[in-house]
Amino acid sequence: MSADGVGTSDDLKRPSFRLHRLKGDLRSFWAVTVRANWRIIFRFEDGKAFDVDLVDYH
């Protein structure tokens, strides 16, 4: 599945992705687990993913 095929956060609701909305300064972002502390974070706007980044935010 690519980010281009995702229309809403519901499209990413798979247990293995561990999709979750972030809090605090990143509250407009969503995250999916990559490995250990690594996450791909992104914002949804009009059904598209923006500001995609790979981060270790823990």
Automatic annotation (TrEMBL):
It comes from the Bacteria. InterPro entries: HigB-1, RelE/ParE_toxin_dom_sf. This is Peptidase. It comes from Rhodoblastus sphagnicola. It holds the Pfam family HigB-like_toxin. SUPFAM superfamilies: RelE-like.
